[in-house]
Design brief:
This protein has 10 helices and 8 strands. With 308 residues, the protein is α/β, with parallel strands linked by helices. Strands 7-5-6-4-1-2-3-8 form an 8-stranded mixed β-sheet, sandwiched between helices. It binds uridine-5'-diphosphate and magnesium ion (MG).
Amino acid sequence: MSHPHISLIIPIYNEEALIEPLLERSIHVLNSMTEDFEIIAVDDGSTDHSLRTLREYHDKDNRMKVLVLSRNFGHQAAYTAGYHYAKGDYIAMMDGDLQDPPELLKDMYDRLITTDCDIVSAKRIHRQEKFTRRLLAKSFHFVFARLSAMQRLVDVGNFSLFNRKALSAMLSFHEKHRYLPGLRSLIGFNHEYVEYSRQDRPTGRSRMTVRMLFRLAFDAFFSFSDLPIKACLWTGLFGIVLLVFATLYILISKVVGLAPLGWSSTLLSIYFLASVQLLFLGIIGEYISRIYRETQNRPIFIVQEYID
Ligand code: UDP
Ligand code: MG
């Protein structure tokens, strides 16, 4: 069986209202790039009619594949599942809510071909989303770029196109907690960017709850930076320096006869030290739970059916 030139991976979780425009626009732009493509829609345990609609599309056009996961695994897992099934020379990742405009795929493809690079990521220069979402995203990218020294990743998400070399490199990472934009940068190769303005989704709310966004942000921080756990050491050292000065101060006060120190300072230092200790226990807990998850070695996704 010959393999397609381009595989487009789209995770779908309860997007029934958007599937039609999404696929129409995607097929239109892919047709302008090559005849030889496949679209892999990964149904991430949708509970609406998404799967039925996807099946109908598959019956009309066999370039349309549907990878059905056995339940909801989250969109990073859905993309990962798509990686394993993509057969194309080039692989594209695109969200299924039309926030990533399919038309941009053509620009990304042209950039990839003309510059002979391995990966093209879409960079958002504007966002037209709710203020709180924008704020969360901005703060995440601000902190992440500083924590992980991945400055180039600011405002880069999943939307991307890359070749098979890059795909194999990504597939060689087996970690369970994954932040794919980070991995895509970590593997190296020649990486180019095209800029676009990110629209809000046409209908429905984001399928990623704030809780899921935080979890993803934590995955990014903890797997791409040692800073959280190193901060324990630095804070501890700083505390010891403070302690030296405090001891001097207390001893001198004692000798000079200014000793009646109140309970405020005592209580404050107890509160302060206790909360610093709890904070760092929490951070260590994050690492331990991640280590535990990795050693459990559970699958990242489970496939129920592949309709190709
Ligand atoms: N998605 C998914 N599984 C999930 C949550 C989301 O496959 O558990 C899909 C969703 O259908 C969409 C894409 O991932 O195609 C991005 O989701 P969303 O728009 O909710 O994320 P945001 O744009 O807010 O980051
Ligand atoms: Mg979205």
